[in-house]
Amino acid sequence: MSSNPSAPESLDSKENVTVTACLMIIGNEILSGRTKDANLGFLGEQLNEIGVRLMEVRVVPDIEAVIVETLNEVRQKFDYVFTTGGIGPTHDDITSACVAKAFGVAWSLHPEAHALLKAHYAEGELNEARLRMAHTPEGASLIENPISKAPGFQMDNVFVMAGIPRVMQAMFESLKPRLTGGAPVRSATLAVSLPEGKIAKGLGEAQDRFPDVEMGSYPYRNGDRFGVRLVLRSVDDTRLEGAVEDVAATVRALGDEPVRES
Amino acid sequence: MSSNPSAPESLDSKENVTVTACLMIIGNEILSGRTKDANLGFLGEQLNEIGVRLMEVRVVPDIEAVIVETLNEVRQKFDYVFTTGGIGPTHDDITSACVAKAFGVAWSLHPEAHALLKAHYAEGELNEARLRMAHTPEGASLIENPISKAPGFQMDNVFVMAGIPRVMQAMFESLKPRLTGGAPVRSATLAVSLPEGKIAKGLGEAQDRFPDVEMGSYPYRNGDRFGVRLVLRSVDDTRLEGAVEDVAATVRALGDEPVRES
Questions:
Q1: Pick from A50, A57, A72: which is nearest to A5 by CA?
Q2: How many domains in chain B?
């Protein structure tokens, strides 16, 4: 895992480099169970496709000290940090001001964001609360929000996005060209009609033969049919296919015919 | 927030004590987006009901050093830690051994867990891989698993559970009597047909009048009807109702009639 936050800009080869990311989900409503997060799954998949590996997620409450401390930890530790939530107009939307605090810069009206909101709201509708959404940390560059206009922003390796999935996804599309990934991770899935405890030994041995191919085992139940999905992941297609063959042979030796699902 | 991990045992009053918890979701499959977590929402709600506040969630990969380091951080920081995932029979199920490492104790066959699995599996079926599920850190007490038998366990303030939601939920039911909560958090919800930017100022002022009542604002869209749900939360019923009245009056002053949903 690379741990140099300035690495992505200086990548000159996509080989053998793991570009890492952390997602901070900000909001009491996620922790209370009231709102189900839908951004983690989306981001994990999207980042995979461009060769960025989501290594960790932190869900934190709307508490300034926690947000600032967490952000300062993870922006050092990972190449990219994405945050979702807490950038609306209400008093509990403190993400943007917390990012300014974490970076030790002023939180001020961003002229470009101001112009966007002035164009969006009718005369007299851009009140004090809405103007908060035009404030960013000094030095931030905006992330376009084609849905509801109030932008996200980027500070160094930190990308600040809305929590509402539709808006978050649109913002991610806007910022994607700014990301530099390593080699994308390919995956292959084998469905097996054996209980996990029967395939475990052979799978562990296959993992030892292919330490560079990540092998995961996920039990499933389909009506009264039980089985395991074996998911293999690697940045190297040849090694991935070799591992798939190896695992498939292991499964066949146990008397089952694996089904390649992806 | 209490930060003393031994506090729950010594609580003699439920007043003015916040009992805190952290959830560690362990597994590459969550970070890759392949598997959607369903345990966060369940745990957040369940803990609320017994007066334990979920303060943070960490989603971490199947990497020993990360699991050990994270666990040692959060078990100091929060009253309770719950983990989900990584306790099955395959090579990537490393949670249990990582907990032993974090506590600096041996990872060994737990006689009671061994007896449970011997009773569950037919003669000759309890192979080496499945026996891993009968290993715990030295000193652990088991958490019953009525679904698939292989138990979870408790080490001090850390509760180790399965990742499969049905099993996790059954384990949580089993362990719940061991938890000592503070005052449960009550909540009230007002649905308002005003945009967030219009209610923001008044809501912020109401929050200032009731600093002990947490107020959150969550925009919703119902067909072409837009609005905001205002969620108020407090351990004190009287203060909660006072705040609801205050916020309702604020909404009425803006020309809308709030609908109390809970």
A1: A72
A2: 2
